Amino acid sequence: MFEIINKQIIAESIKRIDVYAPDIASKVLPGQFVKICPEEGDESIPLTVSDHDAARGIITLIFQEVGSTTGKLGSLPIGEAVFSILGPLGKAVHIEKVGRVICIATGIGAAQILPICRALKKEGNKIVGIIGAKTKSKLMLEAQMRIACDKILIATEDGSYVRRGLASDVLREVIGKESIDLVYAIGNLEMMETVCSITKKAKIKTLVQLKPIMVDCVGMCGSCRVKVGGKILMACTDGPEFDGHKVDFKDYQIRKKSHEEAGKCLNQKSLPNQQQRESGILTKFLSGILKK
Questions:
Q1: Spatial contact of 148 and 117, defined as CB atoms under 8 Å apart
Q2: Which band of pLDDT confidence, cut at 50, 70 and 90, is reported for residue 212?
Q3: Rg (alpha carbons) of the chain, rounded to whole number
């Protein structure tokens, strides 16, 4: 079980693995994720399922190597198995025909929005894809997005490919010229907040996917609390999809920074291995009860 069938470098520090997980492949829907642990005793992390093949029993995971866990996952060779995968988790995206939809993503968000683009197009919507990255080398899944969308627009912050600027700049131009029925955004906090600010003024319904720190991924620890419409919700069980105009991005940023500060103790190289593990357990526990 959970054997790595295929492995590929997608972009700078971005890897794709196809994993044999037939039970998950037969049930997963766009927008859902899994909790994966590379080796026994390792930390488990949530990753969006970017694609799946139910007939072959394979799920596709695309991730950025940013820490020890993703680094270890990315180093596993074809033919080796990961220790455990739990899923599918989270609520699936609500797919319906609404008309003309903009799907905008930056960075690794392109891997997360790709299955949503496919599902929305299959339902009969006209999809305008907008993807952005800092440089051309960090741009992801352009070819796949071109197939999944009716039209695609690209922006790079340094101007190394297509046009210079932010993905949100392209969004502003498009909604100024075309009638749009829905915007779906996945990216960093700043991008999603900017997108929601633009679409709120234009009175366009906007959905976002929030990915705060998740520990157990089943709603027990409370670490992924987000404030939406004045209510406290769990991103892992109530999301990850939320109405972008109702998300309290200020609260989201405060909690994100708090978790980042708490996580710094995990990188204290001077600690012995056992002490590091105990520190990590304590940090995870505290992150679940941490408040403003």
A1: yes
A2: confident
A3: 19
DSSP 87: E
Two tokens, residue 209: 């996917």
- Residue ranges of domains in the chain, CATH in brackets: 4-89 (2.40.30.10), 100-209 (3.40.50.80), 213-233+247-292 (no CATH)
* Residues found in the chain: 292
Coil/strand/helix, residue 257: helix
Q: In sequence order, what DSSP letters do the residues of 135-172 get, joined into one string?
A: SGGG---HHHHHHHSSEEEEEETTSSSS-BS-HHHHHH
| Among candidate residues 64, 75, 74, the one with its CA nearest the CA of residue 107 | 64
pLDDT tens digits, one per residue of 42-77:
999 999 999 999 999 999 999 999 889 999 999 999
* Three-class secondary structure of residue 247 per DSSP: strand
| Token digits of residue 176 | 């100024």
Beta bridge partners of 219: none
Cβ burial 113-141 (10 Å sphere, 16+ → b, else e) = bbbbbbbbbeeebbbbbbbbbeebebbbb
Structure tokens at 265: 């103790």
Contact call for residues 31 and 93 (beta carbons, < 8 A)? yes
pTM as predicted: 0.86
Cα–Cα distance, 230 to 27 (Å, whole number)? 32
